[in-house]
Amino acid sequence: MSMEEINVPAHLIHLLSREQAWHYRILPKGEANGTLDFYCDSEADSYSLSSELEVVLGKDISLMALQESEITRLLSTYYFKEQGKRELKPISYSAADSDFLDSLITEAKGLKSSDIHIETYEKKCRVRVRIDGMMVERYVLDKADYPALINKIKIMANLDIAEKRLPQDGRIHYKNAEDKFDIRVSVLPTLHGEKVVLRLLNNSAANIELTKVGLSGFDLDNYLQGVKRPNGILLISGPTGSGKTTTLYATLKHLNKETRNILTIEDPIEYTLEGINQVQLKESIGLTFASALRTFLRQDPDVIMVGEIRDPETANMAIRAALTGHLVLSTIHTNSAWGTVSRLMDMGIPGFLVANTLNTSVAQRLVRLLCPHCKCSEPLNEGAYPKQFKPFFKLSSHNVAKGCQECFYTGYKGRKAVYEVIPVDQELSIEIKKGNSYVDPLLKERGIKTLAENAFELFAAGETSIDEIYPLLFSY
After folding, report:
1. What is the pTM of this model?
2. 378 has which bridge partners?
3. Which of 64, 66, 375, 434 could staple 370 via S-S, CB 3.0–4.6 A?
């Protein structure tokens, strides 16, 4: 039997702790008629192992041998451990236990997860975590324990435990012996109960640098030209979870000087930066992006950061702030850097105002990087590209994801941002006033690379796979 055919459901994984699985080198196969079936290492003494397991687990044991390499691969997939200094503590598998939530948060943080999803269905409840943009199921919970877990989260986030019909949002200031950080909490009523998403926020901005976010030398120069301008709007576009906020914070850190007054309105405040006045959005009491911007203009600002331009009122206030001599940084949801122009006009901003205020437009996406320990090269078939895509240059081979213990057998380790940076000069401003949406020849003259080109270069360099950049190639 190959590893690809072996799929261990989450409720079976929890028959063993992580330490037991690695110590005995076993993996749950199934349970029937009071007997637990396990995969085991072919090198193990099956009689001694089954006898010891019967004492430890208190049930009859049946073993099926697998090759040593397959057992190691499966253990790394289903019982993965934190790569780093400290070993994760054993986690109890019952949500009723008092330390379950603390252990869950500690584990997710150790695995560099961005979100924890706690969700309930008709017959089961489960916990999933998002690692490098992908969801991984980690635990199956008892339906009877689920309400107590949700109430504990609500109490920690100062939410109303009696309200189960309406969505609620809150925040947990989490602290343990080794770390402290904020968690954004979102509670959503669903058909079978309340679903909770915990967003783990990294409060430290110490490691965020513009030179490290993924901008090429050429794009970084163009971006810094816009950042250095004393006024205008600098917009970063992309879908949720594409790293826009990280780029904005890196920009704020670059601009943060004693001689500048920097104000931000955010939802949520993901990083704290010393020397910057940060305001948390609170729509329930009327503190919106637009209302905060009005007050900001009376606070003698040099730089203003708005978390997101999501409605015409906010767009108009941002334009007004830029027209009165301020540098405004913000994000917006569009598919490309030039698409930002159309989006602003759709919000009711006249073309001449967009042309006079927009100084730089950026589009970005995140792509997963291949694990450097296990990626391998294969011949490239031209059919791997989207049908309408013409490669920017010919490649005979490419790297593919393989999987190893270092990357938990996913084949990927870490992510990198891919950018498209358009500095808006006088000629492009004229095109905006004309309402011209096709400016590709002008951008090529300036050597500006699209998202697809930059993604393809990352692929050609062997850092990522065709599967990761495939969606971006459609935009070319």
Report:
1. 0.77
2. 398
3. 375
